[in-house]
Amino acid sequence: MMECGSVGQRRDYALRFALYASRITPPASRVYNPPMRLGIIIVDHGSRKADSNRLLEEVAAAFSRRFADRYPIVEPAHMELAEPSIATAYARCAQRGAERIVVIPYFLGPGRHWTEDIPRLTAEAAAQFPQTRCHVTATLGIDDLILDLLDKRIRHCIENDYLCEQCRGTPRSGEERAP
Asked: Which of 46, 53, 69, 176 fits a disulfide with 81 by CB distance 3.0 to 4.6 angstroms?
């Protein structure tokens, strides 16, 4: 019977293979860490209503907390009508050390804002920081998670007999109104 080598030789081979494999296959903790320091900007349209603008800031803060190990630099931005603007958020990312800045439109569909306005505003901001590179992602679009969220909202209405705390007494509730 032929032997494949001593136990010591097989162990040495296994260690060398593991070292080699670790060089070509990044560990799970490195999968989301690109070679360039990454900044994230979550951008919505912007509103004249402060509550609406505050909502995006809460989304960005929640995203930052949840994914802090992947994306340590996260900033909110409004395309227009309110601060922080894309330019302001881009500058904050660059000042925090981001070399690549990914702009995520907090929009459902790929309208003119996604095809023209956000890329233009991002490019204008990026021109002030030539050491950075930028990218605008796709919009939220159709995704199973969006479909699940729609179902969640519908179930909330049903479970609250269509009169939840957010809609009761407003035109959204569909309550009968006196003539």
From this structure: 46
